[in-house]
Amino acid sequence: MVHVRQARPADGQAVEAVTAAAFAPLRRIYRPRPGVQWVRPAVVWRLVAVEGRRVVGTVRYVYDQDRLHLMGLAVAPGRRRRGVARALIEHAARLARRRGLWALSLYTVVQTGNVPIFERMGFRVVRQGPSPHDEASDGAPVGEAYLERPVPARTPRRRGAQP
Q1: Which portions of the chain are predicted below pLDDT 50?
Q2: Please, what sign has the CA dihedral across residues 110, 112, 116, 121?
Q3: What is the C-alpha separation between 33 and 101, in angstroms, rounded?
Q4: Of 59, 50, 55, 57, which Cα lies nearest the Cα of 96?
Q5: Where are the beta strands (DSSP E) in 28-123?
């Protein structure tokens, strides 16, 4: 059973290991473009997905105006296709709902094949174009997709209704 929680300082090494293992195969497809400076938000939060005592997934997020923006979603290779990414995204959706935000958002490199995976989790492509931050491993341009997923408003529970 996967449990999602806020990352703790003690999770640092496990988070690095999961992230490195998850992104290693993608580096054959794309890499960060050299010399591109990222504007880093002042506050970046991190969720971890834990099975037993093992961190098996992670995602960073920021509150960006009226949405919660996800970055660097990573699942340990041996735990893929078992609901870890979905658990992280659903937890993020609950955080967004509590803040009254209207959507989750994220960017992904098109050539990774992740767009259909995110679409199955309720995201839709809002726009696509060349990535300003990444390039193919041979230096060629890669495509980037910006996706959003609406966060439904809380619906009040009726008295006597089962949770």
Answers
A1: 163
A2: negative
A3: 31
A4: 59
A5: 30-32, 45-51, 54-64, 67-75, 103-109
Q: Tokens 């998850």 sit at which residue?
A: 22
Measured distance CA(42)–CA(61) in Å, rounded: 12
Cα separation, 152 vs 140, in Å, equals: 39
Cβ–Cβ under 8 Å, residues 55 and 49? yes
CA dist., res. 23 & res. 129, Å (int): 22
Question: If we measure between CA atoms, which residue out of 143, 138, 108, 137 comes closest to residue 28?
Answer: 137
pLDDT at residue number 37: 72
Q: Which residues contact 7 (CB under 8 A, 6 or more apart)?
A: 15, 45, 46, 47, 48, 58
Q: At 9, is the secondary structure helix, strand, or coil? A: helix
pTM of the predicted model, to two decimals? 0.90
Residue 41 has a pLDDT of 74
Residue 43 has a pLDDT of 86
pLDDT digits (tens, 9 = 90+) for 131-162: 999 999 999 999 999 999 999 876 555 555 55
What are the structure tokens assigned to 157, written together? Answer: 């529970």
